[in-house]
Amino acid sequence: MYRSTVELLEKNTTKTASLPAFEVSFGKFGTLVDQIGDKEKERMGKTSGKANARDECEDALVLGTVIVSSALTAYANSIGNAQLKAAVKVSESQLRYARTNEQLNLAKMVLDLATANLAALGPFGVTQAILEDLKARIAAYDAATKQVSSGMAERVGARTAVSDLFIQADQILKDELDRMMQFFRVSAPEFYNDYRAARVIRDIGVRHNKAGQPVASPAGSPN
């Protein structure tokens, strides 16, 4: 939300150079704005790659489970085992829309029953290698899911850090830069008015909590 103010001040360093204290405050403010941008990029990247990896692992899990389940269903039907048939008849849509824990439980159940009936599943295309592959897919999906959960926790921490940076930047802006800009009302009125306009843009974007402290906007990045 502070980018427009930074850009304006960067274009007018020849004017602000007359106030060494202003230059120091602007340096601190600019550093905080850069840190906010970096933290936001970090926060937004915490789960995107992990979520993509989880989706790929989910696709692999569903496909592997359905293949083994289909073979088991055909085998159960061929020997007239209605109980086994009912237990292993898992559809792709059922897996897709199930919760993560249920997906893993269904896949493990199919794997266990296929392992128990492996000797009879050869004619139906199921081998030990296929079962080992399904076992690996289950483990990969489980790990990818945990990675996404970890990424969500990291994003919460990064969001807190961004909020702290916003509070620090806002304090410098209001208690130091805004105050010292008063010196330019007479000597550089156009610069002063441009600064005021940039500050209006910033103030529209900021929200405050119940204690009256500024907090990050939903977008969370400087304008």
What can you see in these coordinates?
With 223 residues, the protein is mainly α. The chain has one domain (3-215). Helix content is 80%, strand content 2%. It is built from ten helices and two strands; from the N terminus they run ααααααααααββ. It has helices spanning 3-11, 13-16, 20-78, 82-88, 92-96, 100-116, 118-121, 128-180, 184-187, 189-205, and strands at residues 207-208, 214-215. It has a two-stranded antiparallel ribbon with strand order 1-2. A hairpin with a 5-residue loop joins β1 and β2 (214-215). α3 runs antiparallel to α8 (128-180). The longest helix is centred in the first third of the chain and has 59 residues, at 20-78. The N and C termini lie close together (4 Å).
Put the structure in a nutshell:
With 223 residues, the chain is mostly helical. 80% of the residues lie in helices and 2% in strands.
Low-confidence stretches: 202-223
Query: SSE order, as H and E?
Result: HHHHHHHHHHEE
Q: What is the end-to-end distance? A: 4 Å
Secondary structure: number of strands: 2
The shape, in one word, is: rod-shaped
Per DSSP, the total helix count is 10
How would you characterize the largest beta sheet?
Answer: 2 strands, antiparallel
Average of the residue pLDDT scores: 82
* Strands ordered across the widest β-sheet: 1-2
Relative strand content:
under 5%
Which percent bin holds the helix content? Answer: over 70%
Radius of gyration: 30 Å
Look at the helices and sheets and give the structural class: mainly alpha
